[in-house]
Write a structure and sequence with these properties.
five-stranded mixed β-sheet; about 20% helix; 60s Ribosomal Protein L30, Chain: A
Amino acid sequence: MNEIVKVGMADLKVISGHGILTTLGLGSCVGIALYDRTTKVAGLAHIMLPSSKLIKNNQNKAKFADTAVEQLLRIMTSMNAQIKYITAKIAGGAQMFSFRDKTNDLLNIGERNVRATIEALKQHNIPIIAQDTGGNYGRTIELHAETGLLVVRTIGHGTKTL
């Protein structure tokens, strides 16, 4: 029986070998799933905002794409994962509300979160091997440490395995 480890909003967790990391209710937030297939070390972050550099109250490293990726990699490598074997899968970044002003990028937090996540992973040379982002619907995801599979569940859009 696989243990299910819940990852809250603005939270991150890392497990090794067995178990499932899950996070609920990804709207504009992005779930960043990192996996080392050789050691079966799996990490999942539920980020809310693109950058810690724009916010004064930025102590929570799991809240931001830039610092969450660094924190996940730090914990994973302390558990014998190797950066050269780590791959990423990302989900979320939806546009949950429609705004009249389509030109104001600040309002499109989902898209900004996805772009910031992609950039943070690129800075650490972590390849994104699958993603399910955008749209206007929420997602719940599960990262399976045994296999590295990411299950994405949505209301009205079915279930995908990445």
